[in-house]
Design brief:
By secondary structure, the chain is α+β, with helices and mostly antiparallel strands. 30% of the residues lie in helices and 25% in strands.
Length: 440
Amino acid sequence: MIHATSRVLVADLGQHVGQTVSVSGWVNTHRLQRTMQFILVRDHTGIAQVTHKRGGDGDAIEAELEHLTTESAVRITGRVVHNPVVKLGGLEIIPESVEVLNRAEAPLPIDEHTGLEQRLDWRFLDVRRRPTARLLFAVQTTLDQGMRENAYAQGCSEMHTPKLMGTASESGAEVFKLGYFDRSAYLAQSPQFFKQMAISAVVDRVFEIGPVFRAEPSFTSRHATEFTGVDVELAWITDVEDVMAFEKQMLTHAIGKAAEVHGEAIRETYGVEVVVPATSFPRITMAAAQEILRAKGWDPEGVKEDLDPEGERGIAAHLREQVGHDFVFITHYPTSIRPFYHMRPADKPDVTLSFDLLWKGLEITTGAQREHRYDVRLKQAAEKGMGTEPLQDYLNAFRFGCPPHGGLGMGLGRVLMVMIGLESIRAATFLFRGPNRLTP
């Protein structure tokens, strides 16, 4: 049996015309004619045509190709030749050996007409078979890389914080409880507390990209029970504007990198133009946003201090019309709907020095200046009726000279969802986790 010295990717076949190479991948389709056999083999870089002229009895290659099934893993060794008739780059492979490394069962459990929920059941096949999905995760990789690059450039250290906690964060709500030897533990809703401990441990600027868990029984298109969070904490800030400035730089860099690497492919595949934002993101206070929305007829049910999804879309559309920007910071959220550790301005204690960042009407970030003074933290917790004893290990970080600081938490999946123009966070996640989904 003939073996090439190493695997050649489909995208590189043009460099090997006239040579014998090995291509490894999956059977995309096969067309078996009376005198010819045509097999399309797909790897992560593209699709190559394998063309074999039947040889009759004793033709081992013909026998192997005849019994292939779609999505079987194969290694094809053969000569790369020019053929202008072939649409796939004008190249084809004339096989000299065919190895079936793992024959796929037939029929496949999904096809091009299968709905999203069933495709999520077979996500490995779904991503493998659909170039749109493979592009999605290539974009995610570039976004992730761009955010890391910029965080390093802005002086951050990367941390890896625990995902198991001994206490149920600040409120005890929306956390997953699990057995931990002879006691209970909780999955971290956020690296928030640990980032602040790092700030108090003289790590001036810290970021983490890692898993976040939220026990929210939400079935919306933008919620998940486990997702990848991008979290940042900055020490020695002057005010919350420093945090917002950091995020503007990080997002502008990451989106710019994604546009440079994948912009054309996103345009061709999804029909979306990736626009690198100007760094002058508009902002509006929560009170002003609500005033504008109510003048337009917005009248939500439930919590009146916050914006519902309709309100977020409405104010984003308003700012887009006014200033032509797809991003908007909503600032100064009321204390009633923000955590006890958000700082409050001395002259207006009913609001917080906090913000949400909306992109095309979807919230992708929550951030704030934190209250770094121990006594004020205790006072604000008491005002919310919270007992602080379970949080004492965390609160100790503020007793011995913790500096002024602030930070943000951003959902990587939501950023990807908005950038690509997807309708659901499910499609922007490799293996989605929600109230009704724990598999595969």
